[in-house]
Amino acid sequence: QQQVKQSPQSLIVQKGGISIINCAYENTAFDYFPWYQQFPGKGPALLIAIRPDVSEKKEGRFTISFNKSAKQFSLHIMDSQPGDSATYFCAANGNSGYALNFGKGTSLLVTP
Amino acid sequence: KAGVTQTPRYLIKTRGQQVTLSCSPISGHRSVSWYQQTPGQGLQFLFEYFSETQRNKGNFPGRFSGRQFSNSRSEMNVSTLELGDSALYLCASSLVGQGIQFFGPGTRLTVL
Lengths: 112, 112
Hints:
A: 112 residues; 53% strand; B: 112 residues; mainly beta
């Protein structure tokens, strides 16, 4: 059973546009929500993460928005660049150790 | 600091064989987790080790096993390989008390 649902599966955005990826979860024990970026042939790299005590976190062009009541969180990539073209995964874990529950991933293509 | 290293990077085996994959965590990291990544199932948690003890285990058959050594290095073993075991196997390390996991480049296992 997929504990974190991610959408869309793929996304095409023009350079300079905003990329938005959404995730939803059911387990209210989750208290850590990271986003990972993965390029072909590489392992996932941590992009940004949030805990449920804040509703938004921004790091450069990347912003996480978190809605605890709706059990949803999203990644916004502002001023998207061709170099951002990659697969993005949302994830969540809680007090069951460090096991990350991943979404299925979003393949982002930023066109010039 | 050097990142998480995994060896070998690529491996080809035949059905019925067994395989051992190795992971060296970031210096000072004591927790090591293993994940299987496939196009169909995405990233799935296998198990997590801390101080040579398995703390968490995902929903995988007993053919998948692992261990951690006193220097925090970890190995995972898959016995009686099946075609469906073909995947990218990722290792991630983390500091005690933090949820941030850093991934290695993975080992690409192909079972023929």
